[in-house]
Design a protein that fits this description.
heterodimer, A: 397 residues, alpha/beta, Rossmann fold, six-stranded mixed β-sheet, 12 helices, globular, B: 317 residues, two-stranded antiparallel ribbon
Chain lengths: 397, 317
């Protein structure tokens, strides 16, 4: 029987880590992910796991130690946020190119500056091209479920890439909600043993890892890495099917919410999806055909499937909880527009920047987005396609 | 068993020949000298910071390393090896590994004194059972001889060139060996290629087999950067030691010990003179700089003598 509990998102991740019992965890505290290594070191102190915990002196060393450890043949994890992830940036690429399936619990927080400790996606969106699988989570339940699945996707022989499981700092990392946990034995059986093919501590066959790679080989190595990422999409679905068997919970590449017949829709990531679903329900009650697509897998980006799910929509808002300073929108907007480009008929896309630095987003704010979309639908006038939601001192607000 | 160089050299090399380091480079000599102290039956994982040694010994698809080897980045050999050692502990505990492994990280002075200092300090402070070896050639040689904090005073490098308004690097060397000694780890030593390599060998053996974190600082001359004839490497090391530019000492369990006191302490000019990077000092105008240099050397030697409980023996001329 599954276990009913009340946990915060951080507790849920720490609990998943305890159940997985990894070989090594190396971490450095940063708000709002600090609680994860805190809870975890208590599990170590109490003998509830037999993990080697390395309390490193920075996030750069955290991910560096993770690279060493995973390359040595150990299942390895860490947790971080914001500037911590930014400090890891260089080594994220090394981890991915060495095909090391390390798992990061990424608790989304705005990047400095100015310094800000609250949720937005500037941290993990800054890592989106580093070669890591990225899975986003709406609430504590999804964070827990995704974390357990991420490991299995990452370690799959056709993938062998690191993965980060993202959730919104404070909003879900610190908010306590009901959660359904899976029994220890089932989790352990689901993730299995980590038995890599090649690793440093293989007593029968030493290996060298991290070469200097000349132009004669680098391109092919990157291509192989890209193939691994492509495979992650199929593997994510396979793993989700297996996960459903032990949890009863269904996961896909994304979640489509009342999208089938929607004429106006939004695409959104993480916790604000919950708020947005409320807005959808409200508008549906008023007879409006509105829907929502919530991103789960952002890397790899399931473009074909997303295009198929969205192509019938007339007007669409891509919601970015980060800036990219491209002057035409955020990273989600760019991906969505690229995904829809090859469709004969595709929706008009408005790209909103919202909720930066933890600015609260209410049901009414999302409601105003749908209002905007309906205005476009009624008038045929698109107007500015790159907008800020609920920002002060903006013209026309 | 008494140390015997000939016997030591008959052991199989852990670093294969055919790598791409320059002729006369000190780094592979340091690597072979240190790894010879690993018992033949013991397994080894070598880590390496980005630098000459890394790019020249592991160029895809060839590796010169007969043991397992990992390169991660420039500034994180300490942290990377921390991770490898932690993995070993965990896997050993779970019964997944049977044999004995040793862990040695190599970095140049760039990757150790400068960009990798934090990572090294962390690894030492946490006490991972590993040895970090700095092969100190006194500049960023891999990128083309730029100054580092290990570069000796007045050296002409590509970022501290001598010129009309410059006499080379204005600052003195950072004393990394003492910085790491002050981490109060079980073993820290400074050594180089001296006589029959006994000093390097015995210090390596202690560093490798003493439980906990250990640090070796090995002066490893670079004929390109120092600008001396390639074949003179042993002479350069001898001069570094006999002028007290590079004293041989160790700190074992907190006890400081000088391993060699020159019978006749040579003037620093003897070490500087054969090197092209100090050529500008040997003009009549710059004589005072050599005197200034000598003062600094004498002061540091005096301080070290005191730390090691030796009597002052500086004769000022």
């Amino acid at each position: 029987m599954s276990i009913r509990e009340r946990l915060s998102g951080n507790e849920a991740i720490a609990f998943a880590m305890k159940q997985i019992n990894p070989d090594v965890v190396a971490a450095f505290p940063i708000t709002p992910s600090t609680e994860i290594p805190q809870y975890f070191s208590q599990y170590v102190a109490d003998g509830q796991v037999d993990t080697e915990f390395v309390p490193v002196e920075s996030e750069h060393s955290a991910i560096s130690a993770c690279v060493g450890s995973q390359a040595a043949g150990a299942r390895t994890m860490t947790a971080t946020s914001s500037c911590g992830l930014a400090l890891m940036h260089e080594i994220l690429y090394v981890a991915a190119s060495n095909r090391l399936p390390i798992t990061i619990a990424a608790i989304n927080r705005a990047l400095s500056g100015p310094i800000n400790i609250n949720a937005d996606h500037s941290d993990t969106m800054g890592s989106r091209d580093s070669g890591w699988i990225q899975i986003y989570s709406e609430n504590n339940q999804e964070a827990y479920d995704n974390f357990i699945q991420a490991l299995k996707i990452a370690e799959h022989k056709d993938v062998q890439l690191p993965a980060m499981v993202c959730q919104d700092g404070f909003i879900t990392s610190h908010a306590v909600e009901n959660i359904e946990l899976i029994e220890d034995a089932k989790v352990k059986e689901f993730v299995g043993e980590y038995n890599p093919e090649c690793y440093l501590l293989n007593e029968k066959q030493p290996m060298s890892i991290g070469p200097y790679d000349t132009p004669s080989y680098y391109l092919e190595h990157k291509r192989q890495q890209a193939e691994g990422m492509k495979n992650a999409k199929r593997v994510a679905l396979e793993v989700a099917k297996e996960f459903e068997k032990i949890s009863g919970r269904k996961y896909g590449l994304f979640e489509a919410y009342k999208l089938e017949d929607a004429e106006a829709a939004i695409v959104i990531i993480n916790s604000t999806a919950g708020t947005a679903k409320d807005a959808v329900d409200k508008l549906r009650n008023e007879g409006k055909k509105v829907g929502l697509l919530k991103i789960r897998l952002f890397r790899p980006f399931p473009a074909e499937e997303i295009a198929k799910a969205l192509k019938h929509v007339k007007v669409l808002a891509a919601m970015d909880k980060t800036e990219s300073f491209s002057s035409q929108g955020g990273p989600l907007g760019a991906e969505i527009k690229a995904a829809l480009y090859h469709e004969k008929e595709s929706p008009t896309v408005i790209n909103y920047i919202y909720g930066l630095g933890g600015r609260d987003v209410r049901v009414e704010d999302i409601g105003s987005v749908y209002e905007d979309l309906y205005k476009i639908l009624a008038t045929g006038i698109t107007g500015e396609t790159y907008r800020y939601l609920s920002v002060r001192d903006q013209e026309g607000k | 068993m008494a140390y015997n160089l000939k016997q030591e050299l008959s052991k199989p090399d852990r670093l294969a020949g055919g790598h791409r380091m320059c002729a006369g480079c000190g780094a592979p000599i340091a690597v072979r000298g240190v790894t010879r102290a690993v018992k033949e039956g013991d397994k080894l994982v070598v880590g390496c910071a980005t630098g000459c040694l890394e790019v020249s010994t592991f160029m895809y698809p060839y590796t010169s390393w007969k043991d397992s080897f990992i390169h991660n980045a420039f500034e994180n050999a300490g942290a990377t090896m921390s991770g490898v050692e932690a993995a070993y502990k965990a896997l050993k505990r779970k019964g997944k590994i049977k044999g004995e492994y040793k862990f040695i990280a190599f970095g140049g002075d760039g990757g150790t004194y400068d960009i990798g200092l934090q990572s090294l300090s962390g690894a030492m402070e946490r006490g991972h059972d590993m040895v970090y070896v700095c092969y100190d050639n006194g500049a960023y040689m891999n990128t083309g001889i730029q100054r580092s904090s290990a570069t000796p005073k007045f050296a002409d490098t590509t970022t501290t060139p001598s010129g009309k308004e410059s006499t080379g690097k204005p600052q003195g060397r950072k004393d990394l060996t003492q910085i790491i000694a002050n981490h109060h780890i079980p073993y820290v030593a400074q050594t180089t290629f001296f006589r029959n390599f006994k000093d390097l060998h015995e210090k390596s053996e202690k560093a490798i087999y003493k439980k906990g974190a250990a640090f070796l600082n090995v002066l490893a001359p670079c004929p390109r950067g120092w600008r001396y004839p390639t074949e003179d490497i042993m002479e350069m090391c001898k001069l570094a030691v006999d002028t007290c530019f590079w004293p041989l000492y160790e700190v074992e369990d907190g006890k400081w010990k000088l391993n060699y006191i020159p019978k006749k302490k040579l003037p620093i000019a003897d070490f500087l003179k054969p090197q092209g990077r100090f050529k500008h000092l040997f003009t009549p105008d710059n004589e005072h700089l050599i005197q200034e240099y000598q003062k600094e050397i004498d002061q540091r030697w005096e301080d070290l003598l005191a730390l090691c409980g030796e009597k002052s023996n500086v004769v000022t001329s």
